[in-house]
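COMPLEX REQUEST
Ligand: glycinamide ribonucleotide
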Amino acid sequence: MKSLVILISGRGSNMQALIEASLPGRIAAVISNRPGAEGLEIAEMRGIETQVVDQRAYPDRIAFDAALAEKIDSYQPDLVALAGFMRILGDIFVNRYHGRLMNVHPSLLPAFPGLDTHARALQEGVKIHGCTVHFVTSQVDHGPIIVQAAVPVLPDDTAETLAARVLQQEHRIYPEAIRWFLEDRLQLSHNCVEVIDATTDGAVLYSPGLHK
Ligand code: NHR
Ligand code: GAR
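STATUS: Structure written out below.
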């Protein structure tokens, strides 16, 4: 059976969605770069091994990345999943896990890479927003896209209400993407990912709606 390591920094709701998805793989460990991450307790309650690699204990990014990689490699995972992981990873780290490092990002990439995506989406007045699961490359938030989900932006939305609507979809698509990986159904070529035997109903989302 394949295994994965999940990297978190905070709340851990995406991690929790992965735990609850009964994936066809073993969650070998949850690792946080922040000692107080709420997600660590959730993982422990589920009997999953947790580790902290505290970024403040290392003099620079390269040293932190090396310590994190060493901790990850002690579990020999097939996949490393970033789930609300808030620290940019350097080239050496990213290349080491090429094709087996995933992230869920709260926007429809390539729109709104980086932080504060929901506030920026509202600022730009987009009518459709969403989330993206992608393979991680050294160009932050620009790696090959695996799956996306779109939600409408509603007239009274705040960054918080919009984030909550997007987060529900993150919790759907991230377990799905990881399931595909564990089932060997993802084919990565150049910058494109093909999902073998994916279904699509061709549904269209309008926002705002076209009819009264
Ligand atoms: N690393 C690489 N190389 N490539 C990606 O695509 C990455 C990555 C590390 C994290 C997640 C990403 C997101 O989904 C992610 C993707 C943190 C920052 C950031 O600016 C940007 C993107 C993402 C995560 N972090 C600050 C830093 O200096 C710290 C911010 C903080 O601590 O609050 O590392 O959005
Ligand atoms: C999620 O929306 C995730 O996409 C986003 O932070 C939230 C973490 O929630 N990730 C980033 O912004 C990465 N920079 P969670 O800890 O409850 O999964």
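REMARKS: The two ends are 51 Å apart (CA to CA). The pocket of glycinamide ribonucleotide (ligand 2) is lined by residues 8, 10-14, 83-84, 86, 104-106, 115, 167, 170 (CB under 6 Å).
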